[in-house]
Amino acid sequence: xxxxxxxxxEAAPRxxxxEAAPRxxxxEAAPRxLWLDAWxxxxxxxxxxxxxTFLVVLVAAAILAPWITRYGPSERIExxxxxxxxxxxxxxxxxxxxxxxSRVLYGARVSLRIGLASTVVSVGIGLLLGAxxxxxxxxxxxxxxxxxxxxxxxxxxVLAIAIVAVAGRSENSVILVLGLTxxxxxxxxxxxxxxxxxxxxxxxAAHALGYSRSRIMFRHILPNAVQPVIVYGTVLIGxxxxxxxxxxxxxxxxxxxxxxxxxxxxxxxxDLAGAFHLLLFPGGAICLTVLAFVLVGDGLRxxxxxxxx
Amino acid sequence: MISYIVRRLxxxxxxxxxxxxxxxxxxxxxxxDPATLIAGGANRTPDPGVIERINERYGFDDPLAVxxxxxWKRTLQWDLGESFQNRRSVNEIxxxxxxxxxRLAIWATLIEIVFGISIxxxxxxxxxxxxxKLTTAVTALASAVPVFVLGFLLQYAFAxxxxxxxxxxxxxxxxxxxxxxxxxxxxxxxxxxxRYLALPAVVLAAxxxxxxxxxxxxxxxxxxxxxxxxxxxxxxxxxxxxxWRHGLRNAMLPVVTLIGLDFGTVIGAAVLTEKTFSWPxxxxxxxxxxxxxxxxxxxxxxxxxxxxxxVVNLIVDVSYAWFDPRICLGDEGGA
Lengths: 309, 335
Known about the structure:
The structure holds two protein chains of two kinds.
Chain A lengths: L1 H4 L26 H13 L1 H18 L1 H4 L31 H37 L1 H16 L2 H12 L3 H11 L1 H15 L3 H8 L4 H37 L11 H8 L8 H28 L5
Chain B lengths: L1 H28 L4 H5 L9 H11 L5 H13 L13 H36 L4 H13 L4 H19 L17 E2 L3 E2 L3 H32 L2 H8 L4 H31 L1 H6 L5 H10 L3 H29 L12
Antiparallel strand pairs in B: 1-2
């Protein structure tokens, strides 16, 4: 029983019906059909499936990059400067002779790492603050909501440049920046869910059974508030990848020779007339990846909330 | 209503206070000594005597709490100080940049209103048509393109290509700077100025227009199913009147919020667009000033940006009452 008492924000999301939640001894069969249902609905959505397929391919390509391309991301090929795409160099080469295809592939690693890591940070902060604000209400709620107002008011680019100036230009400071600025919307969503869920009878029942407040918050309410978080989080990964590209473009993202997509685009900008492929391929990679996350997020929303369709 | 506005205005005060105090504190965590900066840049080693005089004059030696108090005392009197870098007064910089930012924001927002709403409504009333599917695809793509990638693409299409192939003059757009200062009625570009304005305005508007179109479509689809729409048709009103007057007005609420927030944001946060097109606005000035540790410029411009954002926000909320008379702003419970 003690394992169950642990507040478990990372526990497997169980969007079970409210009445099933307070009975951990119930057979696991109850929640599963809902996920199967959702998956069935998701599969019917062609756009979402296209996005998911793209992401699976992208992740595979990022992991298998060394076996897909012969060139390293920072390897300079003598004499091959700014070559247009060819069979030898699928996406051409850049102005110091690096293979753009392999840089885009390795860049997927950077983008996905940053996207996932900083979304995890945002979701963590957003869940915690939103849950506290929504569950306890009163002064805690006021303080947390005012805090989000303050963070909304600070231009995010100022914060980004400042953090990078302290922590240095690296992947980790980008994760920190985007993680610390991405939780605002999440906190509001989680708060709203908690506000409505805490009034339901099963929560009252849990109170009556004498469960601790943290247990009620994280074990009983959170699993039912997790659906919008999954949807928002998926879209947020795309948003983070977009912001990471923007930071790189402004010169506060990861540094050379990291093959960050945003960095590649901003290096290609001086060469629009002569080497359009330097802009097209990394730029296209950003677009497609962000688009895929948005499509999957949309698909998840429709699949998880059958009321809408 | 009045008491609602007053209460909201009072809430703005602590928000701005904490936001700016946070930034102020942040600056003292940043590496780099402001006195060295004033004495001639971070890369030189200036005379220690000079540094001492600067520290005395600007009070950098005072304890942080005293500097903090002084900062707020000056700010409350709208004495925003002068740039550490070139000694220009922040008010002057503000005047220069804010005009450009507001002009760009107005045009981007106009594009968002006109195209976002009309595209959204059209694709809602022709749901599942080819045009609707196309719109869905294009808007999804537009919200996924990084601003600067779109900017470079348009530069390539409207400036690089025309030069390469010698297209006629009227097809060529400019990609850098703000052009001649020929504005009519503050925001209408005349003469050659529109060639400079067109691309940045479109690029800045792209993502928000796509979002506005998606939101209008969704909101419209909901409204079109409502009973009062059937009633309106049953009364014998023609379809156009039903959709645009009865439908749109009710579907507008979330869209108005979005557009209002966008306008408030875009005034100070169009960094990427401004950088891509060398459009000298507030966003890029703030970014530059943080990079060069120009504290007074950062604080002064951020103050104005935050003020603009919160005031626009308030106006948006108040305008709810006009769009939906059922909303009663005064009392807590709502109607």
